[in-house]
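Sequence decides. Our protein:
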Amino acid sequence: FLKFVSKVAPIGIYTSGKGSSAAGLTASVVRDSKGEFYLEGGAMVLADGGIVCIDEFDKMRPNDRVAIHEAMEQQTISVAKAGITTVLNSRASVLAAANPVFGRYDDLKSAHENIDLMTTILSRFDVIFLVRDIRDEERDRNICQHIMGVHMGAAAAGNFDNYNRSSNAGFFDTENDNSAASTPEAIAENAMNVATTGEGELSVPTMKKYIQFCKARCSPRLSEEAGGVLESNYTKIRDDVRQKAIAAAGRSGEDTQAAIPIT
């Protein structure tokens, strides 16, 4: 999924947390053969205006994970190394995937116990999705048929019920972006066909062009009603934490309060 998103996005970079360092994600100062220093941007800088997909986010070293705090909050990266002092733009969205602590999400434990990540990095993500492995015979059979069909080929996959590999081949084939489907005429025809008939699927080049158009032409703004909802929810969260801290202090007999999150 992460690789597919990086292919569909107009500007997308895919990286793995296990093989990523702080310098590789942000910026590094490199010395050339003449002994001069120059600045080399990392994934967050190269994806300015796009999206960075980080797989195995939980496998990153804590020091490397802390390096992207500024990029995710301020959308900039400050560099002060080897006499080079500058601020680089990193206006990129971050899509990360991580595994739970026990390899499988435990429903008997809280989300905080299942996710082994610091609150400082979790608070910088706008949305967190929990992908649970729910045991369902029909769903498991469909997944099994899909995986078997991918490996056996479209012809063999046609023998499975409720599965048609050919209908998904154009959507998930991200290697043919430079084929005939990438021409302006093909993109316009594909978009018009889906819009008028309501059938079929948008090709990868069409989706990429549509996303690029939305980013360039559309400027959504927060309405007053939505702003009021966010304001009330934010103050409620702060008040709940404050009340819990006061109750805990009353039980322990200590006049102390826990830190109240503001991010």
Remarks:
- The mean pLDDT is 79.
- The longest strand covers residues 76-81.
